[in-house]
Write a structure and sequence with these properties.
With 162 residues, the chain is mostly helical. The protein is 50% helix and 7% strand. The chain has helices spanning 11-30, 35-45, 55-68, 94-111, 144-161; strands at 74-76, 84-86, 118-120, 129-131. It is globular, with a radius of gyration of 19 Å.
Length: 162
C-alpha cells in the first residue's frame, strides 16, 4: 500500500491508511502459503523490541535479516502510476518483501536514536510488541486490555497479602 503525496492531511486520513494497512497485513498473515516463513521472520524481529542493554546483539541479528532478505531501497511501481519507494526488490517474494520492509522500518527507528520506543508488552502471557508514541516514552503495555489486567492482578495480589 502506498500513500500518494498530499493525500494525508489529517488524523482521519492516517486512521484510514492504518486500517487499510492492517487489513492487508491480516490477509497476508491469514494466507497459509507462507505462514511458516512469515512466523520465522516475526520471531527474528521480536528480540529488537524491548532489547534494552542487549541492543547490540539485536542489531546484529537485524542486519543479518536485512541482508538475507535483500533489503535495498528502490523505486518501483505499476505502469501508468507514480513510482513508490520500497525496501525490497520488485521481484521479491512475499516473505522477502515483508521481511525487508519491516526490518528496514525497525532499523530506521533504531537509526534515529529511538530504539527505546520499540517496546514489548510487560503483561504476563502477552507477546505483543509496539512503538511507544507517548510523550515521555513510558508505555509498558501493548494496550488497555493488558494494562487493566496487570493492574487488577497487582491489586488482587496486594489485597491477598494483607
Amino acid at each position: 500500500m502506498t500513500i500518494e503525496p498530499g493525500h494525508i492531511t489529517g488524523q482521519s486520513q492516517i486512521d484510514s491508511y492504518v486500517s487499510r494497512w492492517i487489513e492487508q497485513a491480516v490477509t497476508l498473515i491469514n494466507s497459509t502459503d507462507d505462514i511458516g516463513e512469515l512466523a520465522a521472520v516475526a520471531d527474528a524481529l521480536r528480540p529488537v523490541f524491548g532489547a534494552g542493554e542487549h541492543l547490540d546483539a539485536a542489531v546484529t541479528r537485524l542486519n543479518d535479516l536485512l541482508a538475507r532478505h535483500g533489503a535495498v531501497p528502490n523505486l518501483h511501481g505499476h505502469p501508468g502510476q507514480s513510482p513508490v519507494l520500497a525496501f525490497h526488490r520488485p521481484d521479491a517474494t512475499r516473505v522477502d518483501a515483508w521481511a525487508a520492509d519491516m526490518g528496514t522500518a525497525i532499523a530506521m527507528v533504531i537509526g534515529v536514536g529511538q530504539a527505546a520506543r520499540l517496546g514489548a508488552c510487560e503483561a504476563e502471557r502477552c507477546a505483543r510488541v509496539f512503538l511507544d508514541t507517548t510523550r515521555n516514552a513510558s508505555r509498558r503495555f501493548c494496550g488497555l486490555t493488558c494494562q487493566n489486567r496487570a493492574k487488577a492482578s497487582a491489586y488482587r495480589a496486594r489485597r491477598a497479602a494483607r
